[in-house]
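Kindly inspect what follows.
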Amino acid sequence: MSEHQHGTMSTYEQEKTFRGFIKLGKITAAICVGILVFLVIYAV
């Protein structure tokens, strides 16, 4: 078993996944706001 050295692990994949998760959250929030605005304008 090889020795682990702190600070040498690549975090590229984790960062890429996190950016995708945040992007999905922003898109979902924008869609929800758009639906609410649509309901306020046309459902009243």
Summary: The two ends are 67 Å apart (CA to CA). The mean pLDDT is 91.
